[in-house]
């Protein structure tokens, strides 16, 4: 197991964490550990989309349109 120290935590955040921990029936340390674990395991949307594309046959055959248009300034008049 690793240990981390969080410095400069706002008192209001600490109070909120303490309230959440009490609500969930665990220590504040256990509450923070649960929050961090859940956040770290959340899937990355880009990786999830890539995996979904691979599951349906990939994206290698999709045509990539040529971008030859020129940006124009907007006329607000």
With helices defined by DSSP (H or I, 4 residues minimum), what is the helix count? 3
Low-pLDDT stretches: none
If you average the pLDDT, what whole number results? 90
Q: Could you state the order of secondary-structure elements as H and E?
A: HHH
Largest sheet: none
Fraction in beta strands: under 5%
Give me the Rg, rounded: 23 Å
Helicity, in percent?
40-55%
Q: Structural class from helices and strands? A: mainly alpha
Distance between the termini: 64 Å
Total beta strands: 0
**In one word, what is the shape?**
elongated
Task: From the structure above, extract its key features.
77 residues; 3 helices; mainly alpha
Descriptive overview:
It is a single chain. This protein has about 80 residues and is mainly α. About 50% of the residues lie in helices and about 0% in strands. The protein is built from three helices and no strands. The N and C termini lie far apart (about 65 Å).
């Amino acid at each position: 197991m690793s240990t981390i120290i969080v410095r400069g935590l706002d008192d209001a955040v600490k109070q909120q964490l303490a309230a959440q921990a009490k609500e969930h029936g665990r220590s504040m340390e256990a509450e923070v550990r649960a929050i961090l674990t859940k956040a770290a395991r959340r899937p990355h949307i880009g990786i999830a989309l890539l995996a979904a594309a691979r599951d349906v046959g990939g994206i290698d055959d999709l045509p990539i349109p040529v971008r030859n248009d020129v940006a124009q300034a907007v006329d607000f008049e």
